[in-house]
Amino acid sequence: MSYIGTSINNSPTITGKAAEAIPDGAFLAAAFDSNGAIKVASTDVGALGVFTPETDGIAAKGDVTIQVKDIGLWKTGAAVAAGAELMSDANGKAITATTGKFILAVALEAATAANQVIQVQIC
To answer: In this structure, are residues 76 and 118 in contact, taking their beta carbons and an 8 Å threshold?
Structure first.
């Protein structure tokens, strides 16, 4: 059997359907729900990436775009240090990872408080 082209998707983003309305999702962590739809991540699930800036006012079952690799932007839920391993809090915001939790990214710059948008390396 021979294949023409590549089977590897080199894009840093994927698109999916929103599990529910996402009124203000820009720069928040995203995760799959149990049906494979996309929702705002929380601490109890592994995040798959970060919603892109245009993820605001998305209706349930609307298209959403998630950055799943490379350097992106993530809104913080607390102060974080540059170089810190980051996980999602209950609202999809970046916080310093705790033992046993899924690490989504590494902070490339510090944040002094919650709700700052910082550069992260999604890993």
So the answer is: yes
Q: Could you read off the pLDDT of 31-67 as tens digits, one per residue?
A: 999 999 999 999 988 899 999 999 989 999 999 999 9
User: In angstroms, rounded to a whole number, what is the distance separating the alpha carbons of residues 47 and 92?
Assistant: 8
Give pairs for 42-48: CB < 8 Å, separation 24+: 42/88, 42/89, 42/90, 42/91, 42/92, 43/87, 43/88, 43/89, 43/90, 43/101, 45/102, 46/102, 46/104, 47/87, 47/88, 47/92, 47/102, 47/104
Beta bridge partners of 19: none
Structure tokens at 103: 């690490």
Beta bridge partner(s), residue 31: 39
Torsion of CA 18, 20, 25, 27, to 10 degrees: -50
